[in-house]
Design goal:
Layout: H1 6-18, E1 40-42, H2 52-56, E2 62-67, E3 74-80, H3 89-92, E4 100-102, E5 117-126, E6 133-136, H4 137-147, H5 155-164, H6 191-203
Antiparallel strand pairs: 1-4, 2-3, 3-5, 5-6
Helix pairs in contact: 4-5
Bound molecules: iron/sulfur cluster (2 copies).
One iron/sulfur cluster (SF4) binds at residues 40, 57-59, 61-62, 79, 84-90.
């Protein structure tokens, strides 16, 4: 029989002194390291509802539903973490860098996959003329803050950002039977309706 090498003997003695490397979970609680990639969690104050996380999710487990009939209209995002592969792409590419983060939560066992939902809800801004989705209010305000004075080139951003500061009052509701006119340029409009308003103003009906 070959004699054991000294290095292996040393390892065996160390392992004996260290005790077992395995853990006793679930009999004893386990605290994973901070870098552990567990259940993704939304942070409602830092999420702006831009849905970039859903666009980059490789398993397409982030559902986005725009409910324009709700009052106020809302965008609902939900991670179906039963189909999540915990890759961290949503966290990596989050526009604000802190709207969604992978937590250290790992014990996600359930009998009902429909329960595996991590939702967030953000208010939507709709075009005053056609009702098309322009974006989430928080997203538009985030853009307005980032671009500073340049927002004064876009009436939608002016109305939202200055409205937030209390500098713009309530808009008079638009009479839908009236054709688009110059006064409509100072309304919250989608790009298509803004273009139609400007063209009508410049070229006529
Ligand atoms: S802010 Fe981040 S978490 Fe929120 S929708 Fe955008 S990418 Fe997703
Ligand atoms: S961790 Fe990966 S799979 Fe899971 S929600 Fe984020 S992007 Fe999608």
């Amino acid at each position: 029989m070959k004699k054991p090498k000294l290095r292996e003997l040393g390892e065996a003695v160390k392992a004996l002194l260290r005790g077992p490397a395995t853990i006793k979970f679930p009999a004893e609680p386990y605290v994973p390291p901070d870098s552990f990639r567990g259940k993704p969690k939304y942070y409602v104050d830092d999420c702006i509802g831009c849905k970039a996380c859903a666009e980059v999710c490789p398993s397409q487990c982030i559902e986005v539903v725009d409910d324009t009939a709700a009052d106020p209209p809302v965008r609902r995002l939900a991670v179906h973490y039963g189909a999540c592969i915990f890759c961290g792409q949503c966290e990596l590419y989050c526009t604000t860098e802190k709207g969604i983060r992978l937590s250290t939560e790992f014990d996600l066992t359930t009998f009902n996959r429909a329960e595996c939902l991590e939702p967030v809800e953000k208010e939507l801004v709709l075009c005053e003329v056609c009702g098309a989705v322009i974006g989430c209010r928080d997203h538009l305000l985030w853009v307005a803050e980032r671009i500073g004075a340049k927002r004064y080139a876009n009436p939608t951003l002016i109305l939202l950002a200055d409205g937030e500061l209390g500098l713009v009052g309530e808009q008079t509701p638009r009479d839908p039977s009236r054709p688009l006119s110059r006064s409509d340029t100072m309304r919250v409009l989608c790009p298509t309706c803004r273009r139609a308003t400007v063209l009508r103003e410049v070229w006529g009906p």
